[in-house]
Amino acid sequence: MFLCLPSAKTIPWTLQYKEYINQLVDQGALMLTVTGRVNETKQILAPQFNFRLRTPRLIITSQEDAVVDKELTVKITFQNPLSHELKNVLFCMEGLGMQSVRMIEHGDVEKLATVTLMEKFVPIVSGSQKLLATMDCRQLTQVHGFADIVVKPK
């Protein structure tokens, strides 16, 4: 492509997941290098752009009012955004005063599938609490979510 001075052109470009899956580094980071040359001066341009891919969120919702010493059910929802299966998926959840660390081995998640977990626990401390959840597997990391839950006294 050739441009005359002074001009600029936006070029739409789509990079499919299968084309960059093997280029991802820790935490879903990519480096994009764009190269060009100024014909008149033979100057080479090679700007680099570093960016991190946005990961999906876990959605956590309480299914009833939270009360100290009463069983509480929460729903954790995750949608696989990738066009391939996730292997050996592990969920983890915890909440100070509500739930100590709980690991949930889920197994595999089909491409573009939605997973819904219903988890039960008994809060032991009243007040405003945070429930945190993470999802991890080799193909997708740093997926997390949280819910603010107000636990009522008995």
UniProtKB/TrEMBL annotation:
Pfam families with a match to the protein in the record: Transglut_C
Entries under SUPFAM superfamilies matching the protein: Transglutaminase, two C-terminal domains
InterPro entries linked: Ig-like_fold, Transglutaminase, Transglutaminase_C, Transglutaminase_C_sf
Keyword field: Acyltransferase, Transferase
EC number(s) from the headed UniProt entry: 2.3.2.13
Domain of life: Eukaryota
Protein name, per record: protein-glutamine gamma-glutamyltransferase
Upper taxonomic lineage: Eukaryota, Metazoa, Chordata, Craniata, Vertebrata
